[in-house]
């Protein structure tokens, strides 16, 4: 089975276990700004097969690509007349159509960008996180409606189907409270970072309610707690990786266990992680994390 990162149609084999604890800056890191070597509050990221990093550069209202070992990024889409992006939160690459799909949150829409052309796929949605499964279904979390919906490829004129939440704001098993990042596994189960409930939920395909798989023990820094979870990834062993935003760490939980383990960060946010948001892996198992408040993307190299 091929690699790929947290949001592609493929899934990685979990052949890695530990990472170097010293972060390497691979995008941004030159202060807050809008120059090509800077970022401004980046959120979602996507790592392609060439190790290019595609970034939702949130407060710069743009999508930028940093090629492997590049000193600066190049703008794919921004706030100019054609694209008119406003606070984009997430980005994925559709491998089938070789296009980029953007959660254009400020404009309340999901757009597809390909070959210098732009198409609105979904309108009037409080979009936050994006995912696509191996069958080409697109999943979007809606923080305003506290739900995740799914659309069939090419049928975006429909309302989509609610596959998680949709029962009002709350902390019951059939509810969410501001869902952010999402991950879809090969069985079409959807994992949701349930931000204000400090937990990660798993909704099996066609389920009427979800299951708490990470956290759910209130806000806190213990190993059985989260503090505003964000980026998500799940491997073949059902190990769940989550960017634990308020605790300045990335956690790994085995589904069914009572607590998780810290894999990076969590000690001193000044020289490690500070408010991690996005999360992804490359095909070698190197871990990439978005540090919005340090305006950079960092890489933690795999220990072989």
From TrEMBL:
<feature type="repeat" description="NHL">
    <location>
        <begin position="33"/>
        <end position="69"/>
    </location>
</feature>
<dbReference type="GO" id="GO:0005576">
    <property type="term" value="C:extracellular region"/>
</dbReference>
<dbReference type="InterPro" id="IPR001258">
    <property type="entry name" value="NHL_repeat"/>
</dbReference>
<feature type="repeat" description="NHL">
    <location>
        <begin position="260"/>
        <end position="303"/>
    </location>
</feature>
<keyword id="KW-0677">Repeat</keyword>
<feature type="repeat" description="NHL">
    <location>
        <begin position="175"/>
        <end position="206"/>
    </location>
</feature>
<protein>
    <submittedName>
        <fullName>Uncharacterized protein</fullName>
    </submittedName>
</protein>
<dbReference type="InterPro" id="IPR011042">
    <property type="entry name" value="6-blade_b-propeller_TolB-like"/>
</dbReference>
<dbReference type="Pfam" id="PF01436">
    <property type="entry name" value="NHL"/>
</dbReference>
<keyword id="KW-0325">Glycoprotein</keyword>
<keyword id="KW-0732">Signal</keyword>
């Amino acid at each position: 089975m091929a690699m790929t990162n947290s949001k592609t149609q493929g899934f990685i084999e979990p052949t890695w276990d530990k990472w170097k604890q010293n972060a390497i800056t691979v995008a941004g890191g030159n202060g807050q700004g809008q120059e090509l070597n800077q970022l401004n509050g980046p959120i979602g990221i996507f790592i392609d097969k060439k190790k290019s990093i595609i970034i939702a550069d949130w407060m710069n209202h743009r999508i930028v690509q940093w090629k492997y070992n590049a000193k600066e990024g190049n703008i794919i889409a921004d706030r100019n007349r054609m694209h008119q992006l406003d606070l984009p939160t997430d980005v994925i690459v559709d491998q089938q159509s070789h296009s980029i799909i953007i959660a254009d949150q400020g404009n309340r829409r999901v757009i597809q960008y390909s070959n210098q052309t732009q198409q609105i796929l979904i309108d009037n949605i409080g979009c936050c996180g994006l995912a696509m499964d191996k069958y080409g279904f697109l999943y979007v979390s809606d923080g305003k409606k506290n739900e995740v919906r799914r659309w069939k490829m090419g049928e975006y004129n429909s309302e989509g189907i609610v596959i998680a939440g949709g029962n009002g704001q709350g902390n019951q098993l059939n509810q969410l409270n501001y869902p952010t990042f999402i991950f879809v596994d090969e069985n079409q189960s959807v994992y949701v970072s349930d931000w204000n409930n400090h937990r990660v939920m798993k909704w099996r395909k066609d389920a009427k309610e979800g299951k708490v798989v990470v956290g759910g023990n209130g806000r806190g820094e213990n190993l059985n707690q989260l503090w505003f979870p964000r980026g998500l990834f799940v491997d073949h062993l059902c190990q769940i990786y989550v960017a634990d935003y308020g605790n300045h760490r990335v956690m790994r939980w085995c589904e069914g266990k009572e607590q998780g383990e810290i894999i990076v960060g969590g000690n001193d946010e000044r020289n490690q992680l500070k408010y991690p948001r996005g999360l992804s892996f490359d095909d070698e198992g190197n871990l990439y994390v978005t540090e919005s408040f340090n305006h950079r993307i960092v890489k933690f190299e795999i220990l072989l």
